[in-house]
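Appendix B, record 7
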Amino acid sequence: MKLLWSAVAIIFMMTGLPQTAEASINYEETASSKYDAMAVKRRLERMESIVDVKFTPEVEQYIRGYLTAGIRGSEIMLGYGKVYFPVIEYTLQMQDLPEDLKYVTVIESNLRPYAVSIAGAAGMWQIMPETAKLFGLQIDEYIDERRDPVKSSQVALNYLGYLHDEFGSWELALAAYNCGPSRLKKIIRRAGTRDFWELQPYLPQETANYIPKFIAASYMMKYHFYHGLVPKLKDPTMLNTSAVSVFERTTFNEIEQVTNTKYKLIRKLNSMYFTGVVPPSENGHYVILPKVASRKLSAHVNKRCNDNLPGVVRIFTYTVKKGDVLSNIAKQFNCTVHDILSWNRLPSDRIFIGQKITLKVVINNA
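Structure tokens (predicted):
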């Protein structure tokens, strides 16, 4: 499977349940006064999933945790889902993978891009450094792309797709994602079965619990409204953001001053720059901000680039209009389609109305 680097093209938008369905939910009416295990079991038996769903004691324990003692954390995860699931769903569509895979981020990191484990895994998908390097993610003194919601999703899903091709089922692919494919192959040979539920006694404890956790997370995300859980997000501006390409070294403090956006929000939306500095790049690094702030930063970047460049070149942001195609835009601004793809790190010439595209335009031949 080919990786699709589409960071600049992605707009983070509110999603979740279809608007018509979610708008019709009365949380007070659907909320149970107490946890009803039999009702959960009935729903679970009807729930579509990429794995073989069973209502085991472990599954029931994790579901009960999400809906009772862990209800506050569950509502925060539901809020983050509205921010990050559109990114993951876009990548799933591009790689032709099942949508349920997005729930891996719930059990790996509680949907937090800045999460880091004791073992050294990082990001929503908890990618290890070795895996990151194998798939081309950048990790250096300024950037850890495992914390990048877009690029980490592309790598993790690419890897999960490979594991599914290798093992032939999503139960085993997810188990291999947790404990490693080599280790899982040895366990399968020793146990003499490829059925996850029969393999459970032979697996490391964390891997044995992985599919029960996945089933529980899927249930909570799909049926939360029956239990009165309401998605909660501390800063709703995270639901309406866009990306801006930055070419020169830029600090979060500078972005805060230029855009009047709180430093804490900038860091939360851009956790891949863990030092608070966006390093210089000829091709540009992108910064995610609320849309109003992104327009301010775009204007600032364009002005600074124009001030620092020789007189023959100017950089500005073009907004895609209805009927636009890259070949016509390239012809209009005296560049090539390849130039535009490179400047914006686009995976293909497919563009969308309202998309922001960085252009470098020759003003004269002096």
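Remarks on this record: The chain has two domains: 19-227, 236-362. The two ends are 46 Å apart (CA to CA).
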